[in-house]
Amino acid sequence: MIDHFGINCSDWDRSKEFYDKVLGVLGSSRQMDFGVAVGYGADGHASFWIADASAGDASGPNRETHIAFAAKDPEAVQAFFHTALALGAEPLHEPRLWPEYHPNYYGAFVRDPDGNNVEAVFHGGGPKS
């Protein structure tokens, strides 16, 4: 069900050091590093993310949480997005490929009723045309 999730950290340098070490002893390591966000996991898949809370637009003391749900195919990603919009969710990113994550990363992002960044992702590429 959960593909990956992320939290925001107020002491960015201390948080990176902390997660590097505590996750390292559990067999996880940095899989991706975007400067303001680091993804931890194994075998090229980042399943836990930390982000610099001071980067971007902070909307108060508790910034959004990011949760990505695993989708079975690209059509499920599209259904997730359109269902969320029909329920009044704010669209963040329409379904598309995200090659900056990996070549077959197909995802869509919305903001849930509490302001969290919620995503559906399929790792097998976009719809066949």
From TrEMBL:
InterPro entries: Glyas_Bleomycin-R_OHBP_Dase, Glyas_Fos-R_dOase_dom, VOC_core
Protein name: VOC family protein
Pfam family, one: Glyoxalase
Residues annotated as domain VOC: 1-123
